[in-house]
Every structure is written in structure tokens, then in C-alpha cells.
Amino acid sequence: MSHLLRSHAPITDSGWALLDDEARQRLTPALAARRLIDFRGPHGWEHSATNLGRTDLVVASPQEGVTGLRRRVLPLAELRADFTVSVRELRDQERGAVDVDLASLDDAAHRIAVAENVAVFDGWAQADITGIVGASPHEQRPLGEEPESYPRAVAGAVELLLSSGVGGPYGMALGREQYRRVVETAEHGGHLLLDHLRKILDGPIVWAPGVDGAVVLSLRGGDFIYDCGQDLAIGYSRHDDEVVHLYIEESFSFVVASPDAAVALCA
After folding, report:
1. Residue 186 — very low, low, confident or very high, per pLDDT cuts 50/70/90?
2. If you count DSSP H runs as helices and E runs as strands, how many of each does the chain have, helices first?
3. Residue 267: count of CB within 10 angstroms of its CB
């Protein structure tokens, strides 16, 4: 039996299909980090730690004349966002309703996606996760208040990466407000600012809720590793006559292998 306990929920196969499809549609656009870094897994719920390939000396050993080392690992962290679905709405869906109220699920999906983005880009100290921004040795540079200043800032970040020996192509995570400004702005001649920035990067620009400003990083591979145990999935908690209590859950760790492969641009 799966730890998600889905078989205990008063939800039919078509109901689960509806919930899973809705969660996927809401999660995919907001999971910015996964589109820019290496994703390993999913390895399953039982996967508990990421091998760091390093050791610590154990001062005392069980026998004189024998030395000991202890392997270092990074424990996986778990994220969970609870939500509810009305039993009545689920029954109406079985009758053919196409406007089922899944607002609580939509909110939970957004919250957990933002939490994942924040953990990867800004870090999660309580889970021993160092984020891309905190690990980078490069001084943060200003992105600028006006969208017209973005190309210069992005080009400067790319040049800094190149001068540090970090090859491309490059991608960029843009915070919610910064992304809005970019997609709304047309430069002289009618060329979209978004297209101009993509040409500078030679790579994608992703909407990244939870990011403040922007992060330019190399997409050459091997620099930033997301180690997934349980990928995002919906589980069952409990229910009564009116409401089913569910949750979205995942387990993961994140390792920065090459800190100099990213430049943060502050808002």
C-alpha cells in the first residue's frame, strides 16, 4: 500500500484523474527551478539522503590501530501543502459537471511550487539546503527599476560567467513582477524585450514565483543538482460527510556543485 493512502479516500478513479490533472496544470508553470537545473530521480519515498561523496574523520575507533571515517550525506527534506475538496463537488463531477471547484487545490499547488523555488534559489537553512543565490561568489548586481535596463544587466551577468570560465547556454529565472514587466514591454521597432533577452542568454527565461529579482545561470549541466525522492503527488489525510482532506507532498535535496555558475540580479 502506498504511503499516500489514496485507496482510503472516497474518490473514484475519474475523481483522482481530475485532481491529478488539475495539480499538474497548476504546478508545471510555477516550478521554475526544475526547468533550469539538473533533476535526478524520482528515486521513491524510501530514498532518504543524497550522497555527497565526502567523509568526516571519526576520532575514536572500536579498535586501537584502526582509523574510521564517516560518510557525509545530505538528508532529503519533505514539503507538504494541505487542501480540501468538497464531497458534493466530487459527486457532481461524477455526474458530468465540468466546473468543479478546485480552488483549494490550486492554492496548495502554487504554495508548494513557490516553496520549492525559494529552497533552490534562496536556500532553506533549516533543511541544510544552500540556495543558488547564497552559494554564488559573485557580487549581486542590480537589475534596475525599468525594463529597458534589463538587457545591460543580463549581458553583464553573462559576461561575468564567461570571464569566470563558465560556458553556456544560459537561462534566467525572473521574479513575478520582473517577468510581468518584461512580457509587457516592447522595445523600439516593436521587438519584444523577451526575445532580446533570450538572444543574450541563448536559453530560456522562466517565470519564477518566489524569486526576488532575477538569477542568470549556466545550463551546461552538472552545476546544480535537484535530487528527488518522492516527486510531487497528492495524498489522502481524512474525510467526513462534507469534505475530503488531501495534500500535495514531495521529498528532495538540492546541492550546488559549481557556485560560480550563477549570478543574482537584485530587484
Report:
1. low
2. 7, 12
3. 13
- Residue 41 CB: number of other CB atoms within 10 A? 17
Q: Is the CB of residue 51 less than 8 Å from the CB of residue 227?
A: no
Per-residue model confidence as pLDDT tens digits over 2-29: 899 999 999 999 999 999 999 999 999 9
Please give the pLDDT value at position 70.
95
C-alpha grid cell, residue 9: 479516500
* Residue 79 DSSP class: E
- What is the Cα–Cα distance from 215 to 117, expressed in whole angstroms? 12
Cα 238–chain centre separation: 28
Q: In Å, how far are 42, 228, 234 from 48, measured between CA atoms?
A: 12, 10, 19
Length of the chain: 267
**Contact present, 170 and 219 (Cβ < 8 Å):** yes
Phi and psi of 71, rounded to 5°? -65, 140
CA pair distance 175, 263, nearest whole angstrom = 14
The pTM of this model reads 0.94
Q: What is the DSSP letter of 202?
A: T
Q: What pLDDT score was predicted for residue 188?
A: 53
Site of grid cell 549541466: 221
